[in-house]
Amino acid sequence: xxxxxxxxxxxxxxxxxxxxxxxxxxxxxxxxxxxxxxxxxxxxxxxxxxxxxxxxxxxxxxxxxxxxxxxxxxxxxxxxxxxxxxxxxxxxxxxxxxxxxxxxxxxxxxxxxxxxxxxxxxxxxxxxxxxxxxxxxxxxxxxxxxxxxxxxxxxxxxxxxxxxxxxxxxxxxxxxxxxxxxxxxxxxxxxxxxxxxxxxxxxxxxxxxxxxxxxxxxxxxxxxxxxxxxxxxxxxxxxxxxxxxxxxxxxxxxxxxxxxxxxxxxxxxxxxxxxxxxxxxxxxxxxxxxxxxxxxxxxxxxxxxxxxxxxxxxxxxxxxxxxxxxxx
Length: 328
Description:
Elements: H1 3-12, H2 15-26, E1 29-35, H3 42-57, E2 66-72, H4 77-89, E3 94-98, H5 100-109, E4 115-120, E5 139-143, H6 151-160, E6 166-171, H7 176-192, E7 195-200, H8 204-214, E8 220-224, H9 228-232, H10 234-243, E9 248-250, H11 253-257, E10 262-266, H12 268-283, E11 299-304, H13 305-311, H14 317-322, E12 325-327
Parallel strand pairs: 1-2, 1-3, 3-4, 4-5, 6-7, 6-8, 8-9, 9-10, 11-12
Antiparallel strand pairs: 10-11
Helix pairs in contact: 3-12, 4-5, 6-7, 8-10
């Protein structure tokens, strides 16, 4: 090599890392998303919008440096499995999973592609991660709630309807979260003088039939905890509660938006804004195994006054004063 060419090569060398870094930033990254709702569901759309908003705040823009493939599981196990397998086959850089019914089939399909989950009730109990502090494996994210707080749902039911002596808990017994939440509610039941029983979700008609049967006796109330099928059929559950004049407490705001009476639980869309931060960190080289699973930081009490009126229920002033949102 001639001396002049060698000097020119040395002069250009410091720019190599910068050029490589610029090329890395400009490379189009691919993100897959699996949401456990129908595509036209407002809650599912809100979660997807929150994720996109969070990604934009971290400098990721659709069509500029990111492509996104959103799939909808519609609360159906077989549909979720099919969508999960197709997402994994497309080999995106990161996959975002909404809820347990989305995360389970994704981790059955891949143990190598990075997965960030949001609103998953019990990732340790379900075997998705080794621990909250050290997930290990290829998945990390944000939990839906703390199980110990589930007893507050029964306390709230008793506060708004002191005459309630029986409560049916609508849950998904196939998920560890459904079992754990029911256990937490049972632990509180004897202190507030309420007998609790479980309604296990299997299909829409069965849920409605079980609520109808429970409502035959007086002084009943309803609690609805986390579960994919209950989420999809939340409007049906809320309508059944109103039809039988059952005061009902729900785990999440979107039940109240769908006609339910009152909810206390985490902000479900906030989890997706936070998930965007983990997606950003993984795209920049960090591994899911090293990112701790985080719990919710924002809880909200939401009240539907129209539902209260339909039930003939006058809510205590103390409850109204604590509300984060009151729907007219």
